[in-house]
Design a protein that fits this description.
alpha/beta, 8 helices, about 240 residues, 2 domains, about 45% helix, Rossmann fold, 6-stranded mixed sheet
Amino acid sequence: MVEVRRSDITLLDVIASQEIKTSIIEVINECKNKDILNNYGLESLNKILLSGPPGVGKTWTAMAIAGELEMDLVFVRWDSLISSYLGSTGSNIRKVFETVSAKPAVLLLDEFDAAGKDRGGDGQEVGEMSRVVINILQNIDMFSPESFFVAATNHGHLLDTAIPRRFVVVNMELPGEDERRRLIEYYSRGLPVSIDLDEWLKETGGLSGAEIRTRIHQEAKRVILKKNSDFMSVATL
């Protein structure tokens, strides 16, 4: 249910638009300087909602935030918290938040829409979901100021309307040409592949960062195995 990771990457390893990085940096700076802000009676921000399609770097960005803050990353998938027994779901949610209250950490709740769905509709299922959302909202409001909260979702439009306003919302989109250029250079670094950058930029339009990485790594493996004399191949039929 809970996985603790130590991150050694920073925002220098995050390839995103300047607008996205600026939004994240502003929140991190507030978190790092919360004591200064508190002296003026100001509350520092420590909650970010990363919304965007799969593969755009939401988990990677959360790891970079943990690296910047020099904290452990507590990784949780929301679907692992959901139980057919409502009481168990509430207990699971509470335990996760207690984990980051005991020791400062960056809490990443992935697939956040699985538990933060809109409460509209009718019937028993909606009533149970409403209680789950209320539980989440209560824990968000009581979240430790010493920790940092990252929620990630592929479906921001499904979230209950009460949730986003408790976060700084960062919409992460598919990479544009400049970001794709930097992603290609980043993921091909140190690999024995010959990259025609202009051609790759044409071929990777509309792809996520994760898909670009996969394509480059597949090409690198093909080149490496073709050159390796010890390469073991399945006989051609």
